[in-house]
Amino acid sequence: RARRLVPISENLRAWLKPFRLPSGQVVPYRGVANVHARIAARAGVEWKKNALRHSFVSYRLAQTSDPARTALEAGHDQTILFKHYRELVLPEMAARWFAIMPPLEMQRGLVGIGRNAKDRYGKSCLPKSHAAAA
Q: pTM surpassing 0.90?
């Protein structure tokens, strides 16, 4: 709920690039957590609330070794950071996490993952603003 300025790593940039628009938000709707939960349920995977956020904080702390910086980026105070995220991830694991890249076809713009995706009723999975731009 608070504004956070999070650095965009090279791999994050690669994952977001296929969804970019000339301006505005990448995801201009609320309820992203519900989308994650539905996708996980369809895949038969247990999904924990805020799993990606918690993972980011754990891996980012291991990557930077800078609790003050990581706490600021995450919107936590350092007490919470130390209580829940410290020493869960090794720096080598963080390096691998921040190196996960999308498939080459997606990076090269050959596959617009999500742009042509349809839900089970044949409707576009994208918000109208994205579908019009796609």
A: no
